[in-house]
Amino acid sequence: LMFIFESDYSEGEWTDAEPSFLNELESQSMHPTVLKDNSIIIFSSDRPGGYGLMDLYYSKFDNGNWSEPMNLGENINTKGNDVFPFLGQDNFLFFSSDGYKKGSDLDIYKVRYSDEGFEKPIVLPLPINSKYDDLSFILDFEGKSGFFSSNRPGGKGKDDIYNFIAEESIYGYGEKSYNTINVFTKNKKTQ
User: Fold this and answer.
1) Of 37, 12, 25, 26, which Cα lies nearest the Cα of 87?
2) Kind of pairing, strands 55-62 and 29-34?
3) How far apart are CA 114 and CA 95, in angstroms?
């Protein structure tokens, strides 16, 4: 089983890692991402009561305590694997899923969230997504560069890390005014 561990950084040193309160003994908990202001954590888990194989859960930090983990719901979670969340700027969540398209490998999705809930997830385009597993997406503040992992052909191992640079912010992808996306990916082998 996989679990999330926590450590504090104080006076230039890390404390010993301890199991997180997010864990359940009989379930896996992994892939944590924390909002920039440390008010929300989202993670993947296969705990009972979910919608699929792996679901995304969240916890809010309020009055010095974290809430009990709650499922993000069926607007996000599928019958498949919903994993590798990343909380970006301007209320965007990126994650990988193999449950939106039948017979699909993991694809990277973006969704905007607010107090009213989540908009419909949008799959990111080629060359970020491929016919293979694409996961572990992270993005810079402006949304113009970042990294992800993929098992697409041409890499050096099973899951390779790719860097991408976009001419426009990925945060705007899917908006009516955002018609095209020019993204360049590279790994060490193709540089």
Assistant:
1) 37
2) unpaired
3) 17
- pTM of the prediction? 0.90
How many residues are recorded in the chain? Answer: 191
What are the CA-CA distances from residue 14 to residues 10, 30, 31, 132 (Å)?
6, 20, 20, 37
Residue 76: strand, helix, or coil: coil
Distance CA 153, CA 160 (A): 10
C-alpha of 4 from chain center:
15
Phi-psi region of 8 (alpha: psi -120 to 50; beta: other; left: phi over 0): beta
Residues paired with residue 14 on neighbouring β-strands, in sequence order: 9
Q: Are 91 and 112 in contact (CB under 8 A)?
A: yes
34-38, 78-82, 133-137: least confidently modelled range = 34-38
Which residues lie across from 165 on neighbouring strands?
Answer: 145, 184
Tokens, residue 156: 């050096």
| Nearest C-alpha neighbor of 138 from the set 87, 76, 190 | 87
Residues 92-150 have pLDDT tens digits of 999 999 999 887 899 999 999 988 889 999 999 889 999 999 999 999 999 999 999 99
- Residue 125 and residue 121: Cα distance in Å, rounded? 13
Confidence category of residue 189, pLDDT binned at 50, 70, 90: low
CA distance 2 to 6: 14
SS3 at position 172: helix
